[in-house]
Write a structure and sequence with these properties.
The complex is a heterodimer of chains A (77) and B (224).
Chain A (H helix, E strand, L loop, with lengths): L1 E8 L6 H12 L12 E6 L6 H12 L5 E7 L2
Chain B lengths: L2 E5 L6 H12 L4 E4 L11 E4 L19 H12 L3 E4 L1 H8 L6 E3 L7 E9 L15 E8 L3 E3 L2 H9 L3 E5 L10 E5 L5 E4 L17 H14 L1
Parallel strand pairs in B: 1-2, 1-3, 3-4, 4-11
Antiparallel strand pairs in B: 5-8, 6-7, 6-9, 9-10, 10-11
Helix pairs in contact in B: 1-5
The chains are: A alpha+beta (77), B alpha/beta (224).
Chain lengths: 77, 224
C-alpha cells in the first residue's frame, strides 16, 4: 500500500527557499505569481495493516517537525 | 570532570570539542558513538558537537535526535546533567525536544561562516557565569541552518524566563529576535549556534569561548 505524505511549512513561517524561487520566477518574466512555498513529498510503501494513525505518529515523531510544519497523508494511486 | 562528546555520522566538530574539553577541564572526554546505548558512569557534562549529522537528511538534526544514544542523553538531561549543543548539536537538541523551537535555513540562503559579536543576555546560568551580564563577546559561527524560529508565545516565555542566553548584536541568519543561544527551563541544557570550542586558544584568533567551559567547571565544583 502506497501513501503520500505532504510536509509543508505552517502559515506564517518564513520560507527563504520559496522566496528565492519566487524571485527567480519573477526574473524569468512570469508575472502574477503571488507567493511560493516549498514543501516535501514523502512516499511510503507500507504493509496493508499499517493504519493512518500509525503513519500520523511517524509524521509527528520524525517525518515532520510540528514546530514549523504541517503534514497531510494521502493514498497514492 | 567526567565529560562525553557524542559523535554522530557526519559530526565534524567533535574533535574540536574534545580538544576544548580536554584543555579546559584537564581531562580528556569520552567519545561516545551515536549507536551506543549507554553513557559512561558519573558524567558531569555532555556535549553534542557541530557538523552535518546524517548529511542533514530530512531536516538538520532530525535523524540524530532519534539515534539510540539520545534516549540516554535525554534521561541524563532530565537528571540535571549539563548538556551543551553547539550548531548541529543545537539542532539535535531542538529536534529531540530538549529545547523549544526549530532551526531553519538561514534567511539569506547563504552559509554564514565568520566571527560574530554576541551579547550575553543572561550571565547567571551554569554556562555563562564567567561572563558579565550584557558583555559582548566574539565567537565564530559556521552554519546554513541557524535561523531560530519559535512562535511568539514561546519567544515571550523564553525572554521572560531569562532563557535567551546569547543574542547576535547584528542580524546574522534571520533568527527571531536575533536569538543565538537558549537554555532549558531547568537551566542545564544550552543550545547555541556559535562555536565556543573554536575560540579557546589565542591561535584560534580569540579565546572568549573558553570562559563558557570554565564556568561549567567552576559551577560544578562549587556545587559538588
Amino acid at each position: 500500500m502506497k501513501k503520500r505524505i505532504f510536509v509543508t511549512l505552517k502559515p506564517g513561517v518564513l520560507d527563504p527557499q520559496g522566496r528565492a524561487v519566487h524571485h527567480a520566477l519573477d526574473g524569468l518574466g512570469y508575472a502574477g505569481v503571488n507567493d511560493v512555498r516549498i514543501g516535501r513529498l514523502i512516499e511510503l510503501d507500507v504493509a496493508d495493516d499499517v493504519s493512518d494513525e500509525t503513519i500520523a505518529e511517524m509524521c509527528e515523531k520524525l517525518l515532520a517537525n510540528m514546530v514549523i510544519e504541517n503534514y497531510r497523508i494521502e493514498d497514492a494511486a | 570532570m567526567n565529560s562525553a562528546v557524542i559523535t554522530f555520522p557526519g559530526s565534524n566538530c567533535d574533535r574540536d570539542m574534545m580538544v576544548a574539553l580536554r584543555d579546559v577541564f584537564g581531562k580528556a572526554p569520552t567519545q561516545v558513538w551515536h549507536r551506543d546505548t549507554a553513557l559512561p558512569d558519573n558524567l558531569d557534562f555532555i556535549a553534542l558537537p557541530g557538523g552535518f549529522s546524517y548529511g542533514d537528511y530530512l531536516r538538520s538534526g532530525a535523524m540524530a535526535a532519534n539515534s539510540p544514544i539520545m534516549r540516554e542523553v535525554k534521561a541524563a538531561a532530565e537528571r540535571g546533567v549539563p548538556v551543551l549543543g553547539v550548531c548541529n548539536g543545537f539542532q539535535v537538541l531542538t529536534e529531540a525536544g530538549l529545547l523549544p523551537g526549530a532551526l531553519m535555513r538561514n534567511a539569506g540562503q547563504h552559509f554564514v561562516c565568520r566571527d560574530v559579536a554576541l551579547k550575553v543576555e543572561n550571565a547567571q546560568t551554569l554556562f555563562t557565569a564567567a561572563y558579565d551580564a550584557g558583555e559582548t563577546i566574539t565567537i565564530p559561527v559556521a552554519h546554513h541552518d541557524g535561523n531560530y524560529f519559535a512562535d511568539e508565545a514561546t519567544l515571550d516565555a523564553l525572554e521572560g524566563e531569562g532563557r535567551v542566553v546569547f543574542r547576535y548584536t547584528q542580524a546574522t541568519n534571520g533568527s527571531r529576535r536575533d536569538i543565538a543561544g537558549i537554555v532549558s527551563a531547568g537551566g542545564n541544557v544550552l543550545g547555541m549556534m556559535p562555536h565556543p570550542e573554536r575560540a579557546i586558544d589565542p591561535a584560534h584568533g580569540g579565546t572568549e569561548g573558553r570562559r563558557l567551559f570554565q564556568a561549567v567547571m567552576e559551577g560544578l565544583a562549587a556545587t559538588a
